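Ticket #4471: structure export looks truncated?
Reporter: QA, pipeline team
Priority: medium

Steps to reproduce: submit the single chain below to the structure queue and open the exported record.
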Amino acid sequence: MLRQPVYRMSGALMLAFALVGGHVARADGKKMVLTRPLKAGAVTTYKATIKANLQGMDIVIEQSQKQTIKSIKDDGTMAILSEDLGGTMKVNGAVQESKPGPPTTETRDKLGKLIEYTHEQSGQEPFSPEVQRLISSVGELLMTDKEVAEGDSWDTELDNPAFKDKKVKVKTTYQGIEKVGDVDLWKFKQTAEAVVNADGAKMVNESIIWLNPKDGLMEKLDGKVKDVPSQLGPLAFAIAISRVKAAPADTKVQ
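Actual output as written to the record:
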């Protein structure tokens, strides 16, 4: 993730942010449908820490992003604007500023599947547009409209923009309610595999995602991605995302 040509990797990786959730889940083991209370106009800020090793160099990116749900249609289709707020990049201990990149607009259906993806290319991204779209597709938590209980899993098949002859396979498991701090959150595990070339190489994305059932927004994510095709060959990285809490209205900035 050197500034040339891969300093835009942080912007591409931030596409892993999830915007799904639902009402309070039952704790008695009975099945229920995980619905979403998302609202148009909701604005959320997230901070991500991305760690990788590239050609023997340890790289840590810390970056923030603002997400806005621009609209929600009657059928649940959402338009989401993601704005890169910039941050820092540390290469072998040396810190440098990472300036904001171009915004991204995604359209997703009610279950989280990507329908449309728009991202202005800066000419310095390490990933092709097809791989960027693939990262966005598998980085989102994919829900089900079926009733589920703790421990239940469901499979989702997606189109593969990086290798159209093969579908993307995604497995999601609802792991129940977990208290984080003083808040009860829904916990999910999701694994995605996507063939990315004619040799059968696979990009693998595995994430643990916690959602706040009160507003349907993600609280945090811990993920690992392996064998992402890039201009520098297959890349692997770990990503941790957390929701930034808004300061109280009466808080004064010093």
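Status: closed, not a bug. The export was complete when the record was re-opened. Leaving a note from the reviewer for reference: The mean pLDDT is 85.
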